[in-house]
What does this fold into?
Amino acid sequence: MITVENLSMHFGGIKAVDGASLEIAEGSITGLIGPNGAGKTTLFNVIAGHYQPTAGRVLLDGEDITGLPPHDLFGKGLLRTFQIAHEFSTLTVRDNLMTVPGGQKGETLWNSWFRNGEVRAQEREIRKKADEVIEFLEISHVADELAGNLSGGQKKLLELGRTMMVDAKIVFLDEVGAGVNRTLLNTIGDAILRLNRERNYTFCMIEHDMDFISRLCDPVIVMAEGKVLTEGSAEEVKANEQVIEAYLGTGLKNKPAAEGTA
It folds into this structure.
């Protein structure tokens, strides 16, 4: 579904992404891991249209989408969430969901004055869909709560719910588990798995919680120093010496020598 070819993103002399190439298969939940500073979020930002890459290209179902702005990618079904949730804090959970679909009839003054019946009919349809999303995510108890009053985990669920209000093809999740307690993290994980299995959502997620990655993701792609280091199952990458080297600064090959001098 997504093909990244020799992608680079440089900020002056800093090579945040440096010739990265990878593929995200349709229907997969792909994990993207790596130490801090590996270039993971920058890669997401380039794919999602927030940055124009220095070099390389991004393809969505064979179409070159390199550098397209986020609103154009939104229309093509490519969405992303952020490590820090971007909710409308003074709107309710339901209203946050209802703002997502684009091109609503009520957005124009003409329709509001002269086509009020059509505006109300569409609003009822959108509200019905929002309520279905709320039920799916099991957050009915906070449907009328202001989004700013939600816990960190509930805000992450709300962000996931916003992707369900449109026909998403692929969703990029940036540290969906950051700052979330284990109970809510399990709820988020269950929702992702259900969206993947029941609605054929494709996901790519940045995450540091390897238990969460192991439960959800196959394959797992590892980045280090702006490059793709390796790819495989969660168990394969956890046992990979290059991955251990990237995270800990020392590979397994150094272990016997270190033990011998202890």
